[in-house]
Amino acid sequence: MSLPIFLELVEIRTKLASVLPFAIGTLFAVTYFHAFDWLNTLLFFIAMLIFDMMTTALNNLMDYQKAKDAHYQQEVNVIGRAQLDPGMVAKLILVMLVVASLLGVVLVVRTDWLLLLMGMACFAIGILYTWGPLPLSRLPLGEIFSGIVMGLGIPVIATYVNIAPGRLLALDLEWPTVVLRGDFIAIIALGLACITPMATIANIMLANNMSDIEEDQRNHRHTLPMYLGQWWSPRVYALLAYAGFLAVILGVIFGALPIWTLVVELAWPLVIRNVHRFIRDPSKQRTFHTAVINLVLENGLLVLGLGMGVVL
Fold first, then answer.
1. CA 79/CA 83 separation, integer angstroms
2. Distance set, CA 78 to CA 50, 73, 83, 91 (Å)
3. Which InterPro entries match (predicted)?
4. If DSSP codes are grouped into helix, strand and coil, which group holds residue 29?
């Protein structure tokens, strides 16, 4: 397998959807908790990126194996188009899963066992997203789980590995009692910072499903737009696109985010234009890229604002 084909298999161009939430969580740890652990941050970044690539490759493998449409299987899916051996792809997926898991274990040793539970939950959702008898991506749940795992899980873990145990959350075990405790104000503050990545990542999935609704019907995938219908789908899409702007304003008002994060509001006009453009013509070829632009704009400017809060 050549490097270009591997990068296409793992869809490396989509990894901003992981990198930007990672940056948000890391910078939140610095601005809110004034803490930064460079080694934990590096280990988590590598593990996160490898696991994200693994789930994407698994998604492509499952789509190839379960495809009902021969044209999609042989001409659209990268495995059929590049004539890759599915067995070789499966072995590559397993290697990436093992490497990401080992790095996760190292991080657990360096932090505490609550991270193990968080990581296991993210791993489970990431794998079940495309694997198993009833993958989440083939149900009207893909937007919810992708938004939660990538938009919430990644920033929370990126924050957690940078701070001392107990400053955000802690799990106390005194058999037979298990107590989960945390700083409620800090949790709310981090939650406000996570709304932008959660909403925009969920919107990527929603836009993808709105664009592929006919192909999904042929391949027996029952996605959210099939249940929302033509009236609700564009309205939910617009609501998710705009949610992050309100969250940032509330975050600044309540002191959860530095005032510099209001730079996100500069993206309003372009995001509104992109939303209207996509809603008028939901197409993978013509307008899907506007959803990606919105994700990069909103999260990129939030990263910029958090970074300015660190420097200034």
1. 6
2. 19, 8, 8, 16
3. UbiA_prenyltransferase, UbiA_sf, UBIAD1
4. helix
**Token reading at 1:** 């397998």
Global pTM reads 0.91
Structure tokens at 171: 């799990």
pLDDT by residue for the chain (312 residues), tens only, comes to 788 889 989 888 889 889 999 999 999 999 999 999 999 999 999 999 999 999 999 988 887 887 777 777 777 778 888 888 889 999 999 999 999 999 999 999 999 889 999 999 988 888 887 777 777 767 777 788 888 889 999 999 999 999 988 889 888 877 788 888 888 999 999 999 999 999 999 999 889 888 877 666 676 667 777 778 788 888 999 999 999 999 999 999 999 999 999 999 999 999 999 999 999 988 888 888 999 999 999 999 999 999 999 988
Torsion of CA 75, 71, 135, 7, to 10 degrees: 0
Distance CA 151, CA 146 (A): 7
As a whole number of angstroms, the distance between CA 71 and CA 67 comes to 9
Q: Is 171 helix (H, G, I), strand (E, B) or coil?
A: strand
The answer to whether 84 and 9 have CB atoms below 8 angstroms apart is yes
- Contact in structure between 93 and 103 (CB atoms under 8 Å): no
DSSP 8-state symbol, 75: I
Rounded Cα–Cα distance for residues 291 and 278 (Å):
8
CB 267 within 8 A of CB 284: no
